[in-house]
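Checklist before submission:
- one chain only
- standard amino acids only
- sequence pasted in full

Submission:
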Amino acid sequence: MLSVIIPTYNRLEKLQKTLRCLAEQTLSKENFEVIVVDDGSTDGTKDFMENSFSSKDLSWKYFSLQHGGPGKARNLGIEKSSGDLILFCGDDTHPAKDLLEIHKKHHENKSGTALLGIALWNEEEKTTQYMHYLAPAGPQFHYNTIKDTANAGFDHFYTCNISLAKKWLVEEKFDERFVNGAFEDIELGLRLEKKGLKIFFEKSAKVFHSHYYDEENFSSRMEKVGRAFVLFLNKYRQDNKTFFLLKRKYAPFLFFPGIKLFLFMSQVMAESKLVKSLNLRYHWFWQICFSYAKGIDKEKRDFNHSIF
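Returned file contents:
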């Protein structure tokens, strides 16, 4: 059986559509269950799931907990799941009708691996040029950097659309210290890769992302991502090989010119009207770099991390 785990937080309307999409899957309902873990929502999610939601087309479970981040919610979902296969989805991702069937067939043919599907923007909703810059080949989701579809790498362990055998998650769980929905999935992917997990990429396994971004709210997100990166890097401070791999991959500016100079340089580039008028994508790039670096610097100063 396939257990679909969906952590949710204050996205009731989007969650309702996600559940409708799961009820319309080509895979028969006897072959999967849906587990919704409510991470302390205050928008009526608990009342809806406990008192209003019903579906003869779904086998489902609902659990709630105090707000602690998506990693904590997914860990609870894993614990409560009945299936031998786990599929992680987002509460703002709407699965294509054949999504579960594709995931299930993959594991029938290539057991012991993970399957990564693709997240595309939901074109039925408002999308912008900026959002198409962010994904699916940009700073948010970068499927374009997958060089080998039979081994996508830990840095593509995207929990909006990935499945693997439950046995991988018995000892290796999400680190619940990552509370802001940033790097908790990639960090788990790294540990699983060290255990031998290979991630296959299948672009026909689709979900449609329903999440509006503009420059302001994505910059705010990237500051949180920067803070989470410090925690990620600090976890591997005693593992020199991994430490320098992560530093090189996610923050090469920490080698040279360093965080303070990079902050200044990226801010100048992000605020330059000339750069914005000449190349909008280049402007966005530096805007994101500045927010990310600002988050790294704030986390370092607030908690006196000595990783630089």
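Reviewer check: The first strand starts at residue 2 and ends at 8.
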